[in-house]
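Board notes (copied after class):
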Amino acid sequence: MAYDALIIGGGPGGYVCALRAAALGLKVALVEEKELGGVCLPWGCVPTKALYAATHLMHGAATASEMGVDFASPAVDLMRLASWKQGVTDRLAAGIADLMKAAGIDVVRARATLVGPRTVRLSSGASLDADRIVLATGSHPIELPGFAFSDPRVWSSDDALRLTEIPRRLIVVGGGVVGLELATIYRRLGSEVTVVEFLPEVLAPLGLDRRATAVIRRALAQAGVRVITGVSATSQRENGESVELTLSDGSKLDADRVLVAVGRRPSSAGLGLEAVGIEPDRRGAVPVNERGETRTAGIYAIGDLVPGPMLAHKASRDGIVAAHAMAGEDHTPVSAELIPQVVFTSPEVASIGLSETAARTAGHDVLVGRFAYAGLGKALGMRETEGFFQVVAASADHRILGATIVGAEASDLLAEAALAVRNGLTLEAVAETVHAHPTLPEGFHEACENALGRGIHTARR
């Protein structure tokens, strides 16, 4: 059977692309070798956030005596926790399967390889033809030399999310988003955690202002997570029951497990790109235009497979843009600075658009407003006073260029800022919108008022 569109990969880019393409009237097939949902659903964002929520409960119960509420010491049943986490991902995967069926999309369980610009060969031996093909095969964890994931002492992020054990001592190699999120989770579960980061600062690729990273470093230290920056892990060896890790400065660390979280690489190998004249870059990413189309007409690539932030919501947006392009419709692409970035540490970190540093570097004359969580009644009642709201706007017209939120529920609170940046709203547009009290979103309102020099709850100096 010939299709209008064939999508290879059923992650948040691929399945969203398939659903939108079907809604636009195309006959669609989706080929997925493993589970629907890709990496995000079973091995990435969803289980990580489920465990973040579960361990947040543990932390809340352990410190509730501050409010006069006492609980017995939280205890972790690892098998039940793993089972609950799996139930969350299974339910979502079943929901995706139902959506695909309702949309009339043919889901093919196999591995697909390009053999021509309109044909793929399946691992079952069959072939499928389509007028347009979308490559959405995602990414995989980077393996460091000397730290093979086949070694039971060395974990990838996938291994960490299997919840087979809680190591007494855990070394996390990599102070990026994945490394810090898993460090937070395992510290709450009871592990002694050390993070080793090659760059001078954690979360460096996010381009955060120093104020934000300083809050995170302080919070990690208060939680008992040790952070070592400016060094790399060079080797590891078995040392009795433990692992001895050697760092680039010659120092050594002992642990029970080493979690390598130094980033991900596009999964472009074995796709048959050479058969259709597509050459990935040195990282394995597939170059595309603003519509997601590769140099070979009729073949598109989206998500982690292409340059840009490796984020599920970015992949979904790529999929929507590609679907409209395949249907002959224009759909506005989204630039990298309009992609929200969120880190589920404690406190959370969320940003959109330009930071203060990036805005000034780009030549903008800016107004900057801030407001501390400690000034919010809701935050005080939640015992979540760590963090701040920051807004960056152009001095000339007060158009909001970016925002950073560090604090409780920052991942949810960012949506208002994202809407403002995406639509070119001004500081006045937010400041003159009445925000309910007492709530956390008041912090963004106050930051905008502060940028305008008229903050009600900010002391004037």
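Comment from the instructor: The domain at 2-140+265-336 is CATH 3.50.50.60 (FAD/NAD(P)-binding domain). The mean pLDDT is 94.
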